[in-house]
Design brief:
By secondary structure, the protein is an alpha+beta fold. The protein contains 8 helices and 5 strands.
Length: 210
């Protein structure tokens, strides 16, 4: 179970373990003996789980928006420590701390990745579009394309779903841009993107996947 949990980056739905053949009894024993803990009903975590990912689960959602993009290694300009995407109608929401943002948003593009505690790249970009400027959004899209995390089909789906205020974003997207500083002259060349903080706390630098 330890190796499988590492594959989930230390945080998984109970059902993911059951799908691997673990019984409900085995999972309960792992919790009772301290090998796993329960951040929220239906989820289990190890001590190696990313702190902010666990916090997002405790808040009733998953990592979303700029925080999710940073966890994928995609450029973001927004330094918000934690963006949590919660399903509409969730009634057991925990009170937020300073620096935390909760988005009540339905999942539009489910991820098929093993990591269940963050939204898909497509959903994260759509959530970013709620608050980001056009330039900031294009910077992140450029980065997602450059890192090959946004296919041509994904781009079409994204452009069709974006709010009208962004206009024709497609013509300004440049997958050759390695980071946001290359997207537009309006971005400071010496300004680093926000980095996904490790379990010990945040720091700035290149966007870093986990």
């Amino acid at each position: 179970m330890t190796e499988h949990m590492r594959g989930f980056r230390g945080l998984a739905r109970r059902q993911q373990l059951r799908d691997l053949g673990y019984s409900t009894h085995q999972i309960r024993v792992a919790v009772a003996t301290g090998h796993l803990r329960v951040p929220r009903r239906g989820w289990v975590a190890t001590g190696e789980a990313p702190v902010r990912a666990v916090r997002a689960i405790e808040l009733g959602g998953r990592i979303g928006g700029a925080t999710a993009l940073a966890s994928y290694g995609i450029w973001v300009d927004d330094p918000t420590p934690l963006v949590v995407a919660c399903p509409p109608g969730y009634s057991r929401a925990v009170r937020l701390r300073e620096g935390e943002i909760r988005l009540w948003v339905a999942e539009r593009f489910p991820s098929d990745r093993r990591i269940a505690w963050r939204v898909s790249v497509l959903d994260a970009l759509l959530q970013l579009a709620r608050t980001a400027s056009r330039e900031e959004l294009i910077s992140s899209i450029d980065s997602a394309v450059h890192t090959r995390q946004l296919s041509t089909a994904d781009q079409r789906a994204l452009f069709a779903a974006l709010p009208r205020r962004f206009g024709n974003v497609e013509k300004d997207v440049d997958g050759a841009s390695m980071s946001g500083t290359e997207t537009s002259p309006g971005c400071a060349r010496d300004s680093p993107p926000w980095r996904w903080p490790d379990a010990g706390g945040g720091s700035t630098g290149s966007a870093m996947p986990i």
